[in-house]
């Protein structure tokens, strides 16, 4: 009887040689392809990250340097704006101000300008005075304001109460020698009449110095640096880029000091950009990195990797062809034997020959089949054992009923012999175990859990002559919510045995309070026992695994309860404790308010 090939057999190559060829090929190509892809993506990411870091550092250095250079202009204006000599030279009041004195003051002010230029590193300071005084022809840093009233920068500055900044583009109507300046200007007003302008203070720095700082910032071949006043481009380092492209780039900028590179799409190309404000002037510096510049090296690396992978693939394929020609007979024999086993002949075994890995494979296959035969025999034995265990489990279900019936018999006997103490103890004990089993359910109403804890406390008081005075408080809304069972009893046992009964008087109070706050239930167990020191508290209630926790006789320790609460509810619920030696202990249980499901 011949068997039809299964679906799996139809999917694999028809010949063993093809299998080996595909296997060798995939074993080389798949790991190599994954490794190559990972390497490329990782290198690409590193190149991008390093490029951004280098560009960020260069950009930050440039912004800092330009801010520092512009800040010098601000500092000089601040100094001169407080100099009385400036106000005297700009004054329109000729009283007690002789020509000789005016010449002396102008020389002094010129020396002051020169000294400030030398100290601050700026290039020029000018004072435009709105008066009719005559100044020496040798000085060009003190001039008449009427000479510049038609200039564009003056029209922009006039009427402004604030300091105003100008870039070379703002001096387009000036002589070529007066166009290459970055300037800070401020109108000086008459101290006796704050609405009367007296002069204009102007501090200049050569634009070539700012441009030199800007041109050194790019770390890519085609990186661009922009100096902006809002949407207006004051200066840029772009060469060969259309004005429309620059305008589109500026339109996509985010004028915020985010310290991050933002992708921009302009005129069909991708860029990364970042802006930083120049606080003194209100201008912005923007660094633009073309997408192609950032990933040029990674693209070259990708091409090289593809060539290498292709060469390795061809070599691996040729090597696989050579390997597949050897040992085909023994592998075919093993394949036929495995097919026979698949068809139901468990006794089929290949005959090993030779002394290599294929021989070991045949031997291992024979050993595996022998082990399978052995496991099948053991499976029969295990099946019989499982049936016996199921029978014992059914028998164990009868034991609790036998215990209840026995306790009822003892209770009736105690009543008939007028021994109420025994009757009370047996009745409480029966209810205690009935609640403990809870019909096999893992979650019970909180009211049942509280009743279970009360029964335990009553049993202990029967045993120890009512030495523990208990106080129980539970909100009705909390009582109907569900909780995993046997949580309170071990904690109450610890409070009684290790807290109250370790006092010299062996007497004390126990308070159990249950409250519900919306979706959370809080249960507190407080005693006035001996308390715990810090070491004992950490050993029992620390979240980290401890060296061990003393367990209750029932087998439920504090750590057991904490772990059960964590498994059942997770964070932020659980168990916490506050205690001090001689002051008692407060244990708090936090659980979610879980309403019972409708039957």
Helix and strand layout, with pairings?
Blueprint: H1 7-11, H2 16-80, H3 84-90, H4 99-120, E1 124-129, E2 142-144, H5 152-157, E3 164-166, E4 181-190, E5 193-206, H6 207-215, E6 224-229, E7 232-236, H7 243-251, E8 262-266, E9 269-278, E10 283-290, H8 291-324, H9 328-342, H10 357-416, H11 420-437, E11 443-445, H12 446-463, E12 468-474, H13 476-479, E13 482-484, H14 488-500, E14 508-517, E15 520-527, H15 534-541, H16 558-569, E16 574-580, E17 584-592
Helix pairs in contact: 2-8, 3-4, 10-11, 11-12, 12-14
Description of the structure:
The structure is a single chain. Helix 3 crosses helix 4 (99-120), helix 11 packs antiparallel against helix 12 (446-463) and helix 12 runs parallel beside helix 14. Strands 2-1-5-4-3 form a five-stranded mixed beta sheet. A five-stranded antiparallel beta sheet has the order 7-6-10-9-8. It is an alpha+beta fold and 599 residues long. The protein contains 16 helices and 17 strands. The longest helix is centred in the first third of the chain and has 65 residues, at 16-80. Residues 1-13, 393-399 and 544-556 have low confidence and may be disordered. The radius of gyration is 46 Å and the shape is flat. The protein has helices spanning 7-11, 16-80, 84-90, 99-120, 152-157, 207-215, 243-251, 291-324, 328-342, 357-416, 420-437, 446-463, 476-479, 488-500, 534-541, 558-569; strands spanning 124-129, 142-144, 164-166, 181-190, 193-206, 224-229, 232-236, 262-266, 269-278, 283-290, 443-445, 468-474, 482-484, 508-517, 520-527, 574-580, 584-592.
């Amino acid at each position: 009887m011949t068997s039809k090939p299964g679906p799996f057999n139809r999917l694999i190559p028809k010949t063993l040689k093809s299998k080996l060829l595909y296997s060798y090929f995939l074993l080389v190509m798949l790991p190599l392809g994954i490794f190559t892809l990972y390497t490329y993506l990782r290198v690409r990411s590193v190149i991008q990250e390093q490029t951004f870091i280098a560009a960020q550092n260069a950009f930050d250095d440039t912004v800092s340097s330009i801010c520092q250079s512009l800040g010098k202009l601000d500092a000089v204006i601040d100094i001169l704006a407080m100099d009385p000599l400036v106000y005297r030279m700009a004054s329109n009041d000729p009283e007690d101000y002789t020509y000789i004195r005016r010449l002396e003051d102008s020389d002094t002010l010129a020396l002051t300008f020169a000294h400030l230029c030398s100290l601050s590193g700026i290039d020029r300071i000018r004072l435009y005075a709105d008066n009719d005084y005559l100044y020496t022809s040798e000085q060009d840093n003190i001039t008449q304001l009427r000479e510049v009233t038609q200039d564009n920068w003056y029209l922009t500055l006039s009427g402004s109460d604030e300091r105003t900044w100008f870039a070379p583009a703002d001096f387009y109507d000036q002589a070529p020698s007066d166009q290459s300046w970055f300037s800070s200007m401020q109108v000086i007003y008459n101290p006796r009449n704050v609405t009367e302008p007296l002069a204009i203070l102007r501090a200049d720095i050569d634009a070539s110095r700012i441009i030199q700082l800007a041109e050194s910032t790019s770390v890519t071949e085609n990186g661009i640096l922009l100096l902006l006043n809002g949407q207006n481009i004051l200066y840029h380092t772009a060469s060969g880029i259309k004005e429309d492209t620059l305008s589109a780039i500026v339109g996509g900028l985010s004028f915020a000091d985010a310290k991050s590179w933002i992708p921009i799409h302009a005129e069909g190309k991708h860029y990364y950009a970042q802006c930083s404000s120049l606080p003194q002037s209100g201008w912005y510096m923007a660094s633009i990195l073309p997408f192609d510049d950032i990933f040029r090296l990674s693209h070259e690396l990708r091409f090289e990797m593809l060539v290498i992978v292709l060469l390795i693939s061809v070599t691996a394929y040729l090597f696989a062809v050579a390997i597949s020609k050897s040992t085909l007979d023994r592998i075919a024999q093993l394949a036929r034997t495995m097919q026979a086993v698949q068809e139901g002949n468990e006794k089929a075994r290949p005959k090993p020959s030779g002394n290599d890995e294929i021989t070991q494979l045949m031997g291992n296959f024979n050993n595996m089949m022998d082990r399978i035969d052995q496991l099948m025999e053991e499976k029969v034995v295990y099946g019989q054992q499982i049936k016996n265990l199921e029978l014992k489990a059914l028998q164990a279900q009868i034991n609790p009923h036998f215990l209840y019936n026995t306790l009822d018999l003892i209770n009736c006997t105690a009543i008939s012999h007028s021994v109420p103490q025994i009757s009370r103890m047996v009745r409480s004990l029966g209810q205690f175990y009935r609640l403990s089993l809870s019909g096999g359910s893992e979650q019970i109403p909180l009211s049942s859990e509280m009743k279970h804890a009360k029964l335990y406390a009553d049993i202990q008081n029967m045993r120890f002559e009512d030495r523990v005075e208990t106080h129980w408080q539970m909100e009705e809304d909390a009582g109907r919510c569900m909780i995993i069972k046997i949580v309170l009893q071990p904690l109450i046992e610890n409070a009684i045995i290790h807290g109250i009964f370790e006092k010299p008087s062996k007497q004390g109070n126990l308070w159990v309070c249950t409250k519900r706050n919306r979706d959370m239930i809080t249960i507190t167990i407080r005693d006035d026992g001996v308390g715990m020191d810090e070491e004992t508290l950490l050993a029992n209630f620390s979240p980290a695994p401890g060296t061990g926790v003393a367990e209750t006789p029932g087998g439920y320790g504090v750590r057991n309860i904490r772990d059960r609460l964590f498994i059942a509810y997770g964070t932020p619920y659980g168990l916490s404790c506050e205690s001090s030696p001689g002051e008692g202990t407060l244990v708090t249980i936090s659980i979610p308010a879980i309403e019972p499901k409708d039957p």
